[in-house]
Amino acid sequence: MSLVTMRHGAHKLSDLQRWESESYQRDTGFVSDYGADVLSWLEPLAGERILDLGCGDGVLTHKIAKSGADVVGADSSSSFIKTAKASGLDARVLDAQNLPFHREFDAVFSNAALHWMIHAEEVIRSVKRALKPNGRFVGEFGGFGNVAAIITAMRAVGEELGGDPNRIGPWFFPTVDQYSAMLEQQGFEVENIVTFYRPTPLPTGMRAWLKVMSGAFFDQYGDRADVALDKVEAVLKGSLCDHSGQWFADYVRLRFRARLDD
Q1: Which one of 2, 10, 52, 178 is most buried, counting C-beta atoms within 10 A?
Q2: How far apart are CA 177 and CA 46, in angstroms?
Q3: What are the tens digits of pLDDT across the range 49-60?
Q4: What would the pLDDT profile of 184-240 be if each residue is shown by its tens digit?
Q5: Residues of the chain scoring pLDDT < 50
Q6: Of 146, 94, 103, 97, which Cα lies nearest the Cα of 121?
Q7: Where are the domains of the chain?
């Protein structure tokens, strides 16, 4: 799930990550399953207007709508938005840094998307503009240390095979203190913020996860892409694959609830 197209090193973010609804649902659909728990921090109410920022295919957007709230889904992926709209949602292709809303929403919600938005200050500023006075911003995304083992393995393989390390991400994984300060600088009161380790089973394996989440890193190797994938899996097998062959991602999540002071 992503909302911005920005420069990162010598590449556009859109060049490094392209989302396809079918592969996302098949290989990483668990993201929405885990995200359902974050809704308890949102506490949507009937009649509220809520923006789901980085809505993906709209699974959680539908759950929010069941509360009776009027929900708008936003994502940068036209594939995701096509799927979300086909399910009956009000879903739009938008840039999180330049949301076309002014004091329109009671809440902005985001799950597993903010870590793709590397210019976090601009995103928070845009969210602030979209919120009504006393509006709330609630979300969960990758925190400091998220997929550290996976990133380390990819960097090691990259050093061996050559290639551009900027293609591993780009990701933004802040600490609690770092993200709290960003929110407070934009006039939010942080009501609750936590970080926690959540090793997450990968139903279709590590290889499929790597292709969906960091495909551009492996694409750069052309006909050696399978070699790179094999090497990364070999490095990770001892720490992220159990005795039964079940793979896990070493997720660290940051969850927060903040409210505008005005």
Answers
A1: 52
A2: 33
A3: 999 999 999 999
A4: 999 999 999 999 999 999 999 999 999 989 999 999 999 999 999 999 999 999 999
A5: 1-17, 19, 21, 23-31
A6: 97
A7: 7-144+170-201+251-260
